[in-house]
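Dear Dr. L.,

I hope this message finds you well. Following up on our conversation about the binding site, I have prepared a predicted three-dimensional model of the protein together with glutathione. For your records, I am including the exact sequence and ligand specification that went into the calculation, followed by the C-alpha cells. Please feel free to forward this to your student if that is useful.
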Amino acid sequence: MYTLYYYPANANAAPHMMLEEIGADFRLSLVDRATEAQKSDTYLKINPNGRIPALQDGDLTLFEAAAIVLYLADTHPEAGLAPRVGTPERAVFYQWLIFLTNSLQEELMIWQYPDRLTGDDKPAEAVVKTGAQARAAAYLDVIEDHLAANDPYFLGDTISAADLYLTMLCRWARPMTTPPRARPAIARLLDLTTSRPAVQRAYAAQSITDGIA
Ligand SMILES: N[C@@H](CCC(=O)N[C@@H](CS)C(=O)NCC(=O)O)C(=O)O
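The resulting structure of the complex is given below.
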C-alpha cells in the first residue's frame, strides 16, 4: 500500500490525482502545515527538505511531486498516463511536465512566497512578486498556445500526467491578475480534468470544497 504525505491542495494534489486515476490502494497521512509538521524530526526523516509531498511504497520513499507522478505513471502503464519510454511522444511529455515543475511551479512559488527571497524588505517583495507573476503569466501563455494547437491536452487527444499536473498548478494560480481560466484552451483542459471522477475524489478527500481549478 502507498502512503501519500499531504496537506490540502499542496503539491501532493497531482500525485493524489494519479493514485486515484490508477486505482491504487493508498492511505493519506496529513502533514499539518498549521503546526509546521513538515519541519518535524519525524517528517524530515521522510523528506529531508521539509516539503510536502512525499510518497512511501514499501521500502521506497520519494519526494518531489513530479518524481512521484512519473513513478506512478511508469509502474502503472495500463492507466495510460504517460507515453511509452523512448518514443517522441514521451520526449514531448517530459518536456511539458518538466516545464511545469521547473518553470511555472517555481514562478508560482516565488509569487506566493516572495519574502523567502526578500526577507523584511517590503519594496523588494513587491518587485519580486510582480516579476514572478509576469513570468508565470508568460509561461501560461506558452501553454495556451500549445493547447490551442494540440487541443485538448498537452499530447493532443490523449490525457497524461502532465495535464493533471497543470490542473494542480492552475488552482494555485487562480488569484493571478489574469487567472489560468481566462485562456480558452487552458479552460477547456481544466473543464475536462476537473470533471474526472478520480480528480474529484482526490480533492474531496482533501476537503477542498471551493472548486478544483
Ligand atoms: N519542488 C517540490 C516543492 C514542494 C513544496 O514546496 N511544497 C510546499 C507545499 S505546496 C511545502 O511543503 N511548503 C512548506 C514549506 O516550505 O515549509 C515538489 O514539487 O515536491
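In brief: The mean pLDDT is 97.

With kind regards,
A. P.
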